[in-house]
Amino acid sequence: MNFRRRVLGGGLAVLILASAPLVASAASGSAAVPVSASAGDVTWSVAPADEAGPDGRRWVEQELDPGESVEDHLAVRNLSATDIEFRLSAADGYFTEGGSFNMLPSDQESVDAGTWIEVQPSVLVPAGEVRVVPFSLHVPEGAVPGDHPAGIAASVLSQGQTADGTAVGLESRVGFRVMTRVTGELAPVLAIDAVDAHFDSGWNPFVPGRLSVSYSVENAGNLRMGASSTVDFSGPLGWGQSTVGAESIADSFPGEARIITVETSAWPLMLLFGSVAVKAEPVDGIAASVPLPTQSVSYSVWAVPWPQIALALLLAFTIWAFMSDRRRRRRKLKNLLEQAREEGRSEERGGVADAATPRVASIVSAAALGTLLLIFSGGTAAYAADADSGSITIVVDITETEGTGPALLAATGVDMNLVYASLLVAAAGLSTGVAVAAARRRERGHRTDSPSIRPPGSSSQPPL
Length: 464
Hints:
With about 475 residues, the protein is of the alpha+beta class. It has three domains: about 10-180, Sandwich (Immunoglobulin-like); about 190-305, Immunoglobulins (Immunoglobulin-like); about 335-450, no CATH class. It contains three helices and 23 strands. The protein has helices at about 305-375, 405-410, 415-450; strands at about 10-15, 25, 45-50, 55, 60-65, 70-80, 85-95, 100-105, 115-120, 120-125, 130-140, 145-160, 165-180, 190-200, 210-220, 225-235, 240-245, 250, 255-265, 270-280, 295-305, 380-385, 390-395.
């Protein structure tokens, strides 16, 4: 026969593949869980009951002292058209990561409340009928106070095939949970462990980064309870403080742990400081008989603003380059202006010197001529020169005396008028040569000078 399962409410259903890892599922709701099928399939349900039949309970809850025992019942209903012998079993219970209740598969050994339940190994249920089966629950001496989950189920074995034709054995289970609270000191304890914070700054400097905080919440006490948690964070001096709610834990048994991850946006403030706060919550809307704890753990994570740093460096480089180019241009302009001023001053000095050269040459020539006249005439001479106009006036008083140069030359028959005329011509030629040399030198200086920038209002001409 082929078997298929469907969970319509509470209870639990488990499908076992003998040749593969166990596949299990469970649900909460009504304890009667029919497993429907097409023609030829088996359909059945299992529910808590009293001696007369199903009593409407979703699951069994007992509060017992260590060493105490209790009798209870389950009802198996065969909804198929064939008489079926169902296998009965009990095992430890647990909550899956998704928060659903389940019981350990048949190939795993129970170590807690699953071993406290005793039930007959099987029951034959005629088609369309219900059979009530008693079971007992015995709490051993020395049992730890607190909540202990277990499950009890009726299963059907069958043969099937995988996609490649391999034959496998199938065990389909339907059952309900059995919750036992052992009396004694109840200690609800939450433990937060393995806090791991990570920050991703992204690449866009104009949007916040992503903060991811993951942590483990363990029910470290002996009481079944849920939990709610929050994650807060802030930068240095409390900048950008924010609180984010995390996924709540609807139900957990003692010893179970859940990993919770919170992701939120946060600005990179170099270093983020935060805390994870977890508060225990009662389950099934029933107020706890003892105060429930609140636990918190601090964390920190580097949130380096890499995109913002890159943008700041780019802006700083741009400003530096602009200012450097501006200073360079100003320095260059200043140097050109200074060079132009220096050239202007040099031209002014050169112009004055060039203008004065012919006049000075005339004065020098006249002075030389006067000196020669004095030497050769043995007389006296007076001369006055005007450097500005370039003119010179010479007054010579020649008195021939015996033994002087002119007297000697006259004694030899030399014409003294010719001597004096030669001296005057020599002096004039010397003066003209000096003036011509100065003019040529000034002309060469103008040809070799490079063009220059002169300040507004400056002139290369000497001042008048």
